[in-house]
Design goal:
332 residues; mainly alpha; two-stranded antiparallel ribbon; 17 helices; globular
Length: 332
């Protein structure tokens, strides 16, 4: 479903929606020979075709049958968390961004708001509990869920790449740690509007290990490179923190060294043994190309910005690698 309008936060900010008339009329302008998979793969044009197909899915009626449209559209529809390149249209983030979620203005600045958002990005993303239970809860509420729900309802261990047992709240103290430390959020936000990089620094801050003057530990464990950036990206999308510049986002992609760089490599904009400057140039080039190639109406549906671009590159690389343009194969 399309994201609802969000209430104004620090400054008047809304997440745009396509008009109702767009929901049944968008036809992707696919570039390339219709009888080959090359129209999707291994090039800047292929990436743009990927985005256009995703716009078509984002604009459709929620009741659209799963087998409607191209094979690529069917794959995006089947698992939008993994394959929808339009960030705000992913199944889970669109649920969390609704007015009863942790990014709503009534709760976003509070300890509870940060706690619920952190739990989403570190533990529950792509797990059934996101849709089976309310997105706002107390620490006791979530501890009860941990006790009563099977682990596969709480955590998708593969959601962020390599399975990580430390994301399992049944076997760690991560939930109580998050709640105790989330009070820092309220104090931190009392200053002027933070930057995106400042937000990442806050999320990924460390503190001294008790009894040691040299050892450090994360204040919010499991919110490292990728998960921490995603959480900061959520706050930038709703306007609580500033949007990163193109250069800042490119440098983060290089540092994290995951899906966005792989997406640039798939398009042959980047070599495997790239430098930071080469990554910066590649990211800037694809961002500027998409900005020029798509209409304002299309970019409004996409939620086009640098955070959406990083997300889209991450989704392009698995779709390309798994050859999901030509077949239905989600058992990966």
């Amino acid at each position: 479903q399309l994201l609802p309008l969000l209430e104004s936060l620090v400054s008047p900010v809304t997440l745009n929606q396509p008009s109702s008339s767009a929901s049944t009329t968008y036809t992707p302008r696919i570039i390339g020979r219709p009888d080959t998979l090359s129209k999707y793969q291994g090039s800047v044009d292929g990436f743009c075709n990927f985005l256009r197909e995703a716009i078509a899915v984002a604009c459709e009626d929620p009741s659209t049958p799963a087998t409607t449209g191209s094979i690529l559209q069917q794959n995006i529809r089947k698992d939008s968390n993994r394959l929808q390149p339009l960030r705000r249209h992913g199944k889970d983030i669109s649920r969390m961004m609704q007015s009863d979620g942790p990014y709503a203005s009534k709760i976003i600045r509070t300890q509870q708001g940060f706690f619920c958002a952190a739990i989403f990005r570190a533990i529950t993303f792509a797990a059934p509990v996101v849709h089976s239970h309310p997105p706002i809860f107390t620490v006791d509420d979530f501890q009860n869920l941990v006790k009563t729900l099977p682990i596969d309802q709480l955590v998708n261990m593969k959601a962020l790449g390599t399975p990580n047992a430390n994301r399992n709240p049944k076997k760690s103290k991560i939930v109580t740690v998050y709640w105790d430390e989330s009070i820092r959020w309220e104090m931190w936000l009392k200053s002027e509007k933070p930057s995106f990089l400042d937000c990442i620094t806050f999320i990924q801050a460390t503190k001294s290990v008790e009894g040691s003057s040299s050892k450090k530990q994360s204040i919010f464990p499991q919110l490292g490179g990728l998960a921490g950036m995603l959480l900061a990206g959520d706050y930038a999308e709703v306007g609580l923190v500033s949007m990163p510049t193109i250069t800042e986002m490119a440098d983060i992609c290089y540092k994290i060294n995951k899906g966005a760089k792989a997406g640039l490599t798939c398009m042959q904009l980047l070599k495997v043994d790239e430098t930071a400057e080469e990554c910066r140039t590649a990211f800037k080039n694809i961002y500027k190309h998409v900005d020029k190639e798509f209409t304002d109406a299309e970019k409004e549906i996409m939620g086009f910005n640098v955070i959406m671009m990083e997300h889209a590159l991450c989704k392009y690389s698995p779709a390309f690698s798994w050859n999901l343009f030509g077949k239905l194969n989600m058992n990966r």
